[in-house]
Specification:
Helix content is about 15%, strand content about 20%. By secondary structure, the chain is an alpha/beta fold. A hairpin with a 2-residue loop joins strand 21 and strand 22. The protein starts with a helix and ends with a strand.
């Protein structure tokens, strides 16, 4: 039903929010406005007669809650019928739950097959959905989290003592058997706050467990985690791309993921994307495909069936569609900084991507990922261009078709990083997100914790679409110096409380040396209404001819479009 996806035309959904904040890190309450002078009294108008009881158009609030028929009596509205697949609950305790979904009837969808032909074969797949019998629910977000214990082939952690590399880098503040962040600040020379950064991945993980346990006491523990990439530093899974599947025996999955995020965090799905470091950071030759294979070795807890994919989560009275994309073309194009160039000639293979450390399987060239590609360094830029072009076509097709109550896009790169080629696959997120009704964009890449909502300045304004950077997971040193008190936005994670009408974003810091619970930002967002096809056409996204719409890139100089019926 249209009302489940969009608000009624011209209507504003009334939401009372405890805190509305955005634009960066910590949020502070806005000052109260000065009182206005009292106006002169006006004659009291005659009261408007109350409408007679009977059937009435549903209010925008009830329409969003899937009511299709309503009844009004003395200004009080009730729901009489619901759109499929929701059923009327005549004993509803509030207006949000007149229409509810029975999770016992939920069909998650077909399983996605193991990618036996190529790790790219499931690109664009629909991962089986899940049903959560809650009207208010939580999930966590994290990114840029998987640390290291040494450079090169020695990237393993001693079990009974701190890593010599970590302990030396962070002045004896590393934990036994655990990784530390890749030293990236100051070209790897610092400065560092060693008392925090020697063990910051653990600090963030411990705080996630603390908040999980607090929520569990209220019956509201998180049901899944959104993971925005750069999962293993310094250069992804330590294997050569194109090699046979060895993910089940991966040291990094066992020690940088499972051991660092123990139960209950490891017991829920981690919906994941690839970041530039997962390809190798300065090369494309590391085991990015192993992260895809591990989806079938993790009993469904690590979810990455392809480089881009989608899934849905059905709740008691609303539905969320997630769209996971691969934006790594941003660091795989001509002219990019050589320190970030995934396709650089000098490092494919070369320093940090040595085939002596991670050799290809027999019969595969040293600068090739085999059947999946890239097949060579010379073809690397084109491979990533083709990857994004396919991802782009998929995204502009599936998002407008979503009938969910919330649409959420997940990408390693923040939305101020426009990507693609003009005239064919160029994505200016600031122009695309709001008109298409995308409610939230979750990203990492920059190593910090930020929340943006509204006009936050040049390149940061995504209109009514809220967006977050949750790149402070602790796998790499942060953009800013942390503090021992934990009152900073350098490292942490986010908790999202989602319901029919709001997403409440809470950004938690790492907690400092004392492990305190510190809320750095609390922002409440409301749904974004997708504009009509006619309005999208007027904005240049589509051209309208009769009942056929053609998708058009608004940046296109040629006007090329593809027909969509």
């Amino acid at each position: 039903m249209v009302a489940a996806r969009h608000l009624a035309a011209g209507a504003t959904l009334a939401v009372v929010a405890g805190s509305l904040a955005g634009c960066g890190g910590s949020s502070k309450p806005s000052p109260s406005p000065s009182p206005s002078p009292s106006p002169s009294p006006s004659p009291t108008p005659a009261p408007t007669p109350a409408p007679a009881p009977g059937p009435a158009a549903c209010t925008p609030e009830l329409a969003r809650g899937h009511c299709t028929q309503c009844y009004q009596d003395a200004g009080k509205y009730s729901c009489l019928a619901c759109s499929d697949p929701y059923a009327l609950d005549k004993d509803a305790k509030d207006d949000d739950t007149w229409c509810t979904y029975d999770c016992s009837k939920y069909t998650p969808g077909d399983k996605v097959p193991y990618p036996s032909d190529s790790p790219t074969q499931n690109n664009g797949a629909v991962w089986p959905g899940m049903c959560i019998d809650e009207s208010v629910s939580h999930f966590f977000t994290i990114g840029d989290w998987g640390g290291l214990c040494d450079w090169g082939k020695g990237n393993t952690c001693p079990t009974d003592q701190p890593s010599p590399m970590c302990n030396g880098q962070y002045e004896g503040n590393a934990d036994a058997g655990k990784p530390c962040p890749m030293p990236n600040r100051g070209g790897g020379k610092g400065p560092f706050i060693s008392s925090i950064e020697g063990r910051v991945q653990s600090l963030v993980s411990n705080k996630m467990i603390d908040i999980n346990n607090d929520l569990k006491k209220e019956g509201k523990e998180p049901r899944y985690i959104i993971n925005v990439g750069d999962n293993f530093y310094p250069g992804g899974v330590d294997s050569h791309c194109g090699n046979k599947d060895m993910s089940a025996s991966s040291y990094q999955f066992a020690n940088m993921w499972k051991a660092m995020y123990p139960s209950p965090l490891i017991d829920i799905p981690w919906f994941s994307v690839l970041g530039n470091h997962d390809y190798g950071g300065v090369c494309f030759l590391k085991g990015w495909d192993q992260q895809i294979y591990y989806t079938w070795a993790s009993s469904g807890k690590w979810v990455m069936p392809g480089q881009y994919y989608r899934t849905s989560v059905q709740y008691k009275n609303f539905k969320v569609d997630y769209f996971f994309v691969d934006g790594n073309i941003f660091d795989a194009k001509q002219g990019v900084d050589p320190k970030h160039d995934i396709c650089a000639k000098a490092t494919n293979p070369g320093s940090k991507c040595e085939t002596t450390n991670w050799p290809p399987d027999a019969g595969q060239g040293p600068a090739s990922c085999g059947v999946a590609g890239p097949a060579s360094q010379d073809g690397c830029y084109q491979w990533f261009s083709d990857l994004w072009s396919a991802n782009y076509k998929w995204l502009i097709d599936v998002v407008p078709k979503s009938d969910a109550d919330w649409q959420i896009v997940v990408n390693h790169y923040p939305p101020q990083y426009n990507i693609g080629s003009a005239g064919s696959s160029y994505m200016d997120w600031s122009k695309w997100l709001e008109p298409h009704g995308v409610d939230l964009y979750i990203a990492g890449h920059t190593h910090e914790q930020k929340v943006y909502y509204g006009d936050c300045g040049p390149s940061l304004n995504m209109g009514k679409t809220a967006w977050v950077i949750t790149g402070g997971g602790g796998g790499v040193t942060s953009e800013m110096l942390p503090t021992e008190s934990g009152d900073d936005d350098a490292y942490g994670f986010m908790d999202m409380e989602i319901s029919l009408n709001t997403i409440k974003i809470t950004a938690y810091s790492h907690g400092g040396v004392d492990g305190k619970t510190i809320v750095r930002n609390s922002t409440t967002t409301v749904p974004v209404a997708k504009v009509s096809d006619e309005e999208l056409a007027s904005l240049g996204f589509y051209t309208s001819t009769s009942k056929t719409f053609q998708r058009r890139n608004p940046q296109s100089s040629t006007g090329a479009a593809e027909v969509v019926v």
